[in-house]
Amino acid sequence: MSLGAAILITCVAFGAVAKTQEVGLAELFPDERQARTMVVINKVLERFHYRDFQLSDAFAADVIDNYFTDLDPGRLFFLERDVERFGRTAGRLDDDLAKGKIDTAFDIFRVYRMRVDSRIDYALALLQQPFDFTHKESYLFKRDKAEWAASEAELNEIWRKRVKNDYLLLKLAEKTDDEIREQLRERYTGITRRIHQFTPDDVYQAFVNAYTRTLEPHTSYMSPSTSENFDISMRLSLEGIGAVLRADNEYTVIQRTIPGGPARQSGQVQTGDRIIGVGQGLDGEMVDVVGWRLQDVVDKIRGPKGSVVRLQTLPKSEASGGRMREVSLVRNEIKLEDQAAQYFVIDELGHEPALRVGVIEVPAFYRDFRAESAGKRDFRSTTRDVRALLNDLKADGVDGLIIDLRGNGGGSLTEALELTGLFIEEGPVVQVKDSFGKVEVEVDPDPAIVYSGPLAVLVDRNSASASEIFAGAIQDYGRGIIIGEPTFGKGTVQTLIDLDRYVPGDDTQLGRLRLTMAEFYRISGGSTQLKGVEPDIRFELGLQGVDHGERSLDNALPWGQIRPARFEAKTLFDLDTLKQRSAQRIIKDDGFGMLFDQARILSEIEAQDEVSLSASERRAESERRDQVLKEKKAGFLRAQGIEPVDEDADEVDEEALEKQQEVIDRILTQEAARILADMIVLRGADERPRAAMRD
Questions:
Q1: CA of 369: how far to CAs of 378, 381, 469, in Å?
Q2: I need a surface site. Which of 7, 96, 546, 686 has the fewest CB within 10 A?
Q3: What is the mean pLDDT of residues 17-28?
Q4: SS3 category, 56
Q5: Using CA atoms, how far apart are residues 372 and 379, in angstroms rounded to an integer?
Q6: How many angstroms separate the CA atoms of 621 and 611, rounded?
Q7: For the packed helices 413-421 and 382-396, what is the interaxial angle rounded to 10 degrees?
Q8: What's the alpha-carbon Rg for the chain, to the nearest Å?
Q9: 366, 415 in Cβ contact below 8 A?
Q10: Distance CA 414, CA 157 (A)
Q11: What pLDDT, in 10s, does the model give residues 194-247?
Q12: Cα separation of 433 and 492, whole Å?
């Protein structure tokens, strides 16, 4: 179940307080305030949204389709006739929405609630019956592209397999039959309980978010109550486990972990892991959260600093079934210094032993705006920290520099501009085009250059926004070589609009709209939107077919192009030679071999949409994948002189696990350093930066 949250991304510090009051069906009707809000939203979108927008029959039909999908992404509750019945109303829905009439949204939700009640009653009845796990049959668990069930009988068969699959998953986790039935009873009744707690504001917000994402994925609505919780979350900063979560059908999935946060530091929480349960304290009850709304899962995870939360996760490598993992995390506030840039030096390059390469890891584009506004002259920022690290590297006598932006989701635009300025003398960095077509060129604010020597920028699929601005500018100037994977492709700019300002003199609270109102363009004229930054030398890790980033989102703004800014680019590098040398090394590298095997397994999992309901087949498949991943990882680590950590042990050595992960993370860094060393040699010794680094 995923109510309007299929694309919602939130930090663990954000989430509405879970409701306990049941709402009657007779209460689920729109009110005048919601109608007024709808009219205001329409006007704001038509006037200010970056994409040209006007209500039409076709748009209204897509809104209804998205609303059905948000309510029932797994096609588990609605029948085909429900969808067809309301689809026929699309012809008048655009006129209704223009007038603020949203009765259709509530009509659909009331049908949905009745369908949920019916399905859960059927699921609970199924739990009373035995299951035969020797019978060879399969379950389609990725149902977002499936047809809607044409009859009750067809839906019954889908639910028979769904309940059997849920049962088998817990059986493979070695739970007893009584434990399984109790956990699934609580899971299923919990779905009904949460749906019955939806208020008219909740229904309205779910519909409006289906409406806004039909236009574009980063525009969303927050009701007055959600806005209040958002403000609380901002005051709480990033206190929690330090993870960005998203909803994926019935699961809450780790979108990414935040540098310096408990989740990242544990080494046991990875991108793509699904959260199955949440427990409080060292021995509190593990609450099953499958099927929960994203906001409610977040509320369970959030808690005071210093307290313990336990997560029961299903690792991404286990696909739709297999071994679960329990991770204990101590909630903490993620401080600015925990995300600060840091450096190390690679001086064992093998093929060029005389060369030393400095690596600066930049996990975020941070800036302590509060300290800055308070007048503190020594406030922390990415650029200030990197400037200091460059001075340290100068003293260390390195021959080249890598800026590592892997996993950097962005942050302050000011920092992206200033950081770029450390490596260029002066000039434009990025162009910003607003919804009225006006283009503003953002420039390097400081004409001084701190480092003019050989430079590489390492990126991956999670490098986004400000990271793409920096990498794109370095590439356009020919200032450095970009290495890694194509970046995320987030090239749009959002602002938070208080809708109350559009009804002056009225104290009714209407909520807020997160609105896409501009787009970033590189100084060469192309957008960073959708395509991201294509590396000069690409690490082909075998994940190209996996949906990721902006390209995986429905209705994302297209890539675009405007007139280039005026700037002077340097001569390009001999990329062909660099690529050939890198490819020859990679094919013999044990670390890359391990990464290729991991990618192959993960791609296999991503492509899978059905699973066997035979216990022996399911267990064998899980063990096969697990064995490949463990053997390859263990072989690589032992070759590095490291004994692999048993991540399934009752007591995991987290310090050893963190060191193990660091070695794995540096596989790509090591090759990036070798590429940079090749570039230095090809350029000649006279361009080495010991004399080029200056304050």
A1: 12, 9, 20
A2: 686
A3: 76
A4: coil
A5: 6
A6: 10
A7: 30
A8: 26
A9: yes
A10: 56
A11: 999 999 999 999 999 999 999 999 999 988 766 555 443 333 344 578 887 887
A12: 10
| Other Cβ atoms within 10 Å of 673 Cβ, number | 28
What whole-number distance in Å separates Cα of residue 452 and Cα of residue 446? 15
For residues 349 and 355, is the Cβ–Cβ distance under 8 A? Answer: yes
Number of Cβ within a 10 Å radius of residue 401:
25
One-letter identity of residue 439: V
**Are 74 and 116 a contacting pair, CB within 8 Å?**
no
* Phi, psi (degrees; rounded to nearest 5) at 286: -80, 110
Between the CA atoms of 112, 114, 120 and 121, what dihedral angle is there, to the nearest 10 degrees?
-160
Reported pTM: 0.87
Buried b (16+ CB within 10 A) or exposed e, 268-290: bbbbbbbbbbbbbeeeeebbbbb
Q: How far is Cα 429 from Cα 447, in angstroms, rounded to an integer?
A: 12
State the sign of the Cα–Cα–Cα–Cα dihedral 661, 664, 670, 675.
negative
Please give the Cα distance from 436 to 434 (Å, whole number).
5
Q: For 337, which DSSP code?
A: G
Structure tokens at 338: 């925990």
Average pLDDT over residues 105-132: 97
Ramachandran angles phi, psi of 310, nearest 5° = -110, 130
Q: Which two tokens stand for residue 182?
A: 């109790």
Helices (H), 412-518: 413-421, 466-477
Q: What is the DSSP string of 365-402?
A: B-B-HHHHHTT-TT--BHHHHHHHHHHHHHHHT-SEEE
DSSP summary character for residue 221: E
In whole angstroms, what is the distance from residue 127 CA to residue 160 CA? Answer: 10
The burial of 324, by beta-carbon neighbours within 10 Å (0-12 exposed, 13-18 middle, 19 or more buried), is given as buried
Phi then psi for 221, rounded to 5 degrees? -115, 140
Distances (CA, A) of 116 to 105, 109, 193, 195, 295: 16, 10, 10, 8, 19
Which residues are catalytic, by number? 465, 476, 490
Helix axes 466-477, 413-421, angle to 10 degrees: 30
Contact 279, 40 (CB under 8 A): no
Instruction: Report pLDDT digits (tens) over 302-324.
Output: 888 889 999 999 887 765 556 78
Contact 160, 194 (CB under 8 A): no
- Cα separation, 132 vs 636, in Å, equals 41
In terms of Cβ atoms closer than 10 Å to its own Cβ (0-12, 13-18, 19+), residue 165 is buried
